[in-house]
Specification:
α5 links the parallel β4 and β5. By secondary structure, the chain is an alpha/beta fold. A five-stranded mixed β-sheet has the order 2-1-3-4-5. The longest helix has about 60 residues. About 30% of the residues are buried. The radius of gyration is 29 Å and the shape is elongated. The protein is about 50% helix and about 15% strand. It contains six helices and five strands, in the order ααββαβαβαβα. It binds zinc ion (ZN).
Length: about 240
């Protein structure tokens, strides 16, 4: 190859390198712009959700029980617990135990499933019942004559469980086993709740649940809406 041939070849290689380099630069720039756009969209969604979360918390903190609804004061306790659960990144479900005759709140709790470490059993109702049973420590008495033991569940008569969301099957089985006979929930959970379908439980559990009342709470529509908002999946890391 003569000198001019070599020059032409060098020029062609240089042009090719130049073209590829620019193509890569343009691709990179496009990619960056795309990433920036995606990032800013994510930030904007995050900001919107954070704003909604804060607005809901303000509404819950400002809510005053509407006494035309019998369950409002207790559902409000449950919803405030739900808010605590959500702030802890544990999920927005709360519950409380109430002595029906006096309105005394015996125990309250919220979901503790994820923080400080994963505990698959610690839904709000489970955590609350664990604490109550551990505190009260009901013991069975034995009849020396007919050698029978008393049923500890009778101690739960007159105690009502209020929860911000319809109980799941795990919690429902626990509630039934505890002896609680009345459960009122604020937000329905059509896909995960069993409160509206006790008849779907196995026969033994239906027998255990005989006489139990599991119904939507008699609370205000606004409180129900706030309970539902707390129950929404947590999409934002940190909330
Ligand atoms: Zn549950």
């Amino acid at each position: 190859m003569n000198e001019s041939g070599l020059q032409r070849r060098h020029s062609a290689v240089a042009l090719k390198t130049f073209t590829v380099t620019w193509a890569l630069l343009l691709l990179a720039a496009g990619g960056c712009a795309f990433a920036d756009k995606g990032q800013s969209m994510a930030v904007s969604v995050e900001q919107t959700e954070q704003t909604e979360q804060i607005e809901t918390e303000i509404a819950i903190n400002a809510y005053v029980s509407d006494l035309q609804y019998a369950d409002d004061p207790f559902i409000l306790v449950a919803v405030r617990e739900a808010m605590e659960g959500r702030k802890e990144r544990n999920g927005g479900i709360g519950a409380c135990l109430v002595r029906e005759e006096t309105g005394e709140i015996l125990e309250r709790g919220h979901n503790q499933q994820y923080e400080p470490h994963f505990r698959s059993d610690l839904h709000a109702e489970m955590a609350l019942l664990n604490r109550y049973e551990e505190r009260v420590r009901i013991t069975r008495s034995y009849d020396a004559v007919d050698r029978t033991a008393s049923n500890p569940r009778v101690h739960m008569e007159g105690i009502v469980l209020y929860t911000s969301v319809e109980p799941c099957p795990m919690c429902m089985a626990r509630i039934i086993n505890s002896g609680i006979k009345k459960v009122y929930y604020a937000a329905a959970d059509e896909s995960g709740g069993i409160g509206h379908g006790i008849e779907n439980l196995p026969a033994f559990w239906q027998g255990m649940a005989k006489g139990i009342v599991v119904e939507p709470a008699r609370c205000s529509p606004l409180l129900k809406e706030l309970a539902q908002k707390m129950f929404q999946p947590m999409k934002i890391p940190g909330i």
